Amino acid sequence: MTQRAGLFPTFFLSGFECSTFLWKDRGRRNLAAETQHDRCARADYAFLRSVGIAVAREGIPWPLVDQGEGRYDFTCLAPLIEAMNAERILPVWDLCHYGYPDALEPSHPDFSRRFAAYCRAAAEHVTARVRGPHCFTPINEITFWGFAGGEWGWMGPFGKSREARYRLREALCEAAIAGVHAIREVDPDARMLHVEPLIHVVPPRDRPDLSDEARHEMEDDAWHAWDVLAGRLRPELGGAPQVLDIVGCNAYSFGQMEYRAHGPHQALAPDDARIVPLCELLQRVWRRYGRPMVISETSGLGRGRKDWLCDVMQESLAAVDQGIDLHGVCLFPAVDMPDWHTGHWLHNGLCDLEKQADGTLRRVPYLTYIDELRHWQRLLNRVTVLDEDPFSDPVDLNDVIQAAHRLKLRPDQDWT
Questions:
Q1: Strand, helix or coil at 359?
Q2: Of the residues 251, 264, 312, 368, which has the maximum number of CB atoms within 10 A of its CB?
């Protein structure tokens, strides 16, 4: 009998890269198509079932479904919904992954209203076709999108100043809150997972005068979207703790950075003494918001995937032992994805992709990574392969807490 039910049917989650941004000089991109997830959804979801994962972040491509004037075409979701229903996988619907419809800029006064209308229509569509509980991410990584689309000029709307970043960030926050309210008009019990990068920023060793700038970015900028969603800032937009709901932390090694005044910061080397244990970063979020938490994305690269998962689990359980309310770890992506800039495969998924002679991308499970996943599933008293109805036995968080107490793992700085 479950003593303390978690939010999801499995502690481990996964997901699929679903960006639909306007990218530099390449126009509209669709990463679900580039990885052929849109063609291989049934196989992709069957794979997740085979490794004991019943929850996946899945994208709805706003630029592709919004036909304007309140008209929507959700036919592209049909194979995804068919696959997740057949394999009994619970989606966390990502409604805006860096992409918005043509001829609608975030600066447009109608942006928030139009996004809310789309969120309402999307919620009506999927809640009628997929079993609940229903969970959504209205806008993915508002903070990062602010930089990439507002200051660095990588993606739409291609801003290149701090002021443009601030404007984009505020527009996205306002739209996300409007989206939450619209979704809950359809399903009052819907849960929201708001995803942001988990970062630590330090000044260069030879530039201690940049300490204030590094601190501001780490303690103010990085928290801004969550603060607005929680109603701590800009309360007139309608934020509240229930709007923030579930705090999703994207944890990557490159989130620990040395400050640069212009452009992206420099990732710290794995042996840099200035690295802060992941446990401490998670604790910072917990102390600030006190909301249910999920590591909403994490992955290593290449041969480092196994060791990265081991480090993340050790740090996560150390944080659980110190009292954070952690409901899951999302191994993202399930299948490999290309580097946005170079197009080279990152080799960061549970499956690698190998191009075949006919152009299809064959899924090749990375077995040492999967073996490590199964090791932690067993330690947490979790299944390694899903049974017929994974929803009948939700995660008992007491199992996770007891494992954390039993293992007594100590946080450290070693992310090698």
A1: coil
A2: 251
